């Protein structure tokens, strides 16, 4: 959201619009980040709780278990001990003693815990345990010893009493014996006493001694018996054998009495020891329970700590999750709005496009109609053209004949021209001869002129000589003057002749030039004749080609006819294309509807554009146009309208593209969000 | 022109004019006609081969062999300060004899032998520079034309000795 805020606020960022994919990515990344955060928090909480539970698991539960085991073991030992107290069976004692290995094992575990962990409660109770357990065992042992002593005394008493009874029976069995009755009663008393001892011994461990004869009565009983036997022995002292028998019994009974005392004392010791042992047991039990309770307390503490930590982190996670959910909802709402606004614009443009496609379809169908009309016009034109072609064909035949005639005429003209050229050449030769003879004449005239000049000089010299001669030379001077006149006249004549010859030379040269010109013209005429004949040949060939061309045009006309018919079918196809186009526009409209349904409410902008409302009517009109066309069309061709439609399409596409591309232009719409 | 004036002039100039009337050989330099006393003319010859001689004045074309005699040839146009022209068919050489020396004179065209009376010879008008008047001894009038009479000595033989020694 912060990133979006930057984007919104910064104008320079407008060139980089957010694509929908980018927005969704940001949403996903944000969600993932929040989940990661919460997960990390939860993981941390679990780590801490794991530490607590590990402590519980490793320490307190074990301690508790150890304590419970020790308690059980001690109780078992106590139970065996008590059983032993009651029944004085050695197996019970051994079972009780056997428990102490277990108890010591548990104790050593306690010691290990105290060493390994910080357990103050256990540590404080441990010394008492360490002293109490051996103490308890010692007491049990002592009790055992006392009980064993009691047993042995009891056995001795029984033996002694049995012997005394045997002695009394021997006496009774003697046929000579006196006081058999009395001895018999003593014997019964003795047996009763022995039974009392049995009973007493049997219940020696019991605290409840009711119904039992106490040791004093037993002892008194034995003493009474001993007095009775002693009295009997004194009465029966005539016969030594019998007296001995009685005294022997008396001694045995006395021994019994001392034994009973011994038993009594042992029993008392035993009782005291029992009390001691029970006391020790109770204190030990207390200690064991204390240790167990310490473990229990530790466990409880840890559990409550765990619970507190769990609560704390649960709150934190709940708060973070709640904030994230609120943030996600807000961001999601914003995203939804921005994407929907974009989609709405797209829908609006798509609707516009559908409308334009529709309009274009209509235009296309109109064009198809025009195409059909122009096709029929073309067909008419084709017929006219065909008739014109026939005329051209007949004219071409005429041209062909004329050109052939011209060709023969030109062939006749050629030798005539050649003859003219030949005559001109000969005339030029004659001219040249005239010029040459004129030159010769001119030379002769020059010679005459020279002679006249020399003559003049001679005449002048003669005049000079004549002048020198004075009077004698006067006649000579006249002659010289005449000669000089002749010379001058001949010079003038030569000059005149020369002029004439020059003019004739000029004339002849002019004639030569004219002859040359005529010759050139003749030559040109010859060339032209040749040209004309080649042209005539070419015209002839061209007219033939034209004939071929006209035939080709004929075939082209038939092809054109085909093309026109093809155009008709094309116009039909274009009509069907227009229909298809309109159906595609409808499809497009459906897509727009789907998109609109997807987006939800389309705002007023789209409605105002009303591409959907106008759509159905337009499509109908297009369809009807297409049908009309199909009925009327046979041949048409109108590239111009096609192109115009194409251009229109391109323009529309281009315009739509440019409108669609700049996503950021509407960024301001978001800013209001 | 009145007779009195002509006579007056004649009287004035008679003392100054150096030449007497008589027969003159006339020739052309361009359009102008000059005249030389016929007694001083030895002969007239056509154009011959003129051999140029080094170290001669500009107006001496060279020398030619006239039947065994070496005759220096003067270009009278150059001497008179006129522009030079090409030789033509009518170009002639007039050989002048004066005080035992011979001198050929190259002229454009020889004209005729005319009689100029003394009365028809007039003094050279001293309008131009003195040298020009020195080259003419007078101006002869024949019909309507004017013939300038060349002062033979001054023009042809008042030349360096070396030139004259050639003849």
From TrEMBL, chain A:
Chain intervals with Low complexity compositional bias: 568-585, 617-635
Entry keyword Signal: no
Ranges annotated as biased composition (Polar residues): 646-655
Domain Methyl-accepting transducer: start-end pairs: 353-582
Coiled coil: none
Pfam families referenced in this protein's UniProt entry, alphabetically: MCPsignal
Keyword Membrane attributed: yes
Transmembrane segments: 26-49, 313-335
CDD domains in UniProt: MCP_signal
Region named Disordered: 366-387, 395-414, 565-585, 602-673
Protein name, as recorded: Methyl-accepting transducer domain-containing protein
Species of origin: Fodinibius salsisoli
TrEMBL record, chain B:
Entry's transmembrane regions: none
Domain CheW-like: residue ranges: 21-161
Entry-linked SMART domains: CheW
Gene3D superfamilies: CheA-289, Domain 4, SH3 Domains
Protein name: Purine-binding chemotaxis protein CheW
Biological source species: Fodinibius salsisoli
Lineage of producing organism: Bacteria, Pseudomonadati, Balneolota, Balneolia, Balneolales
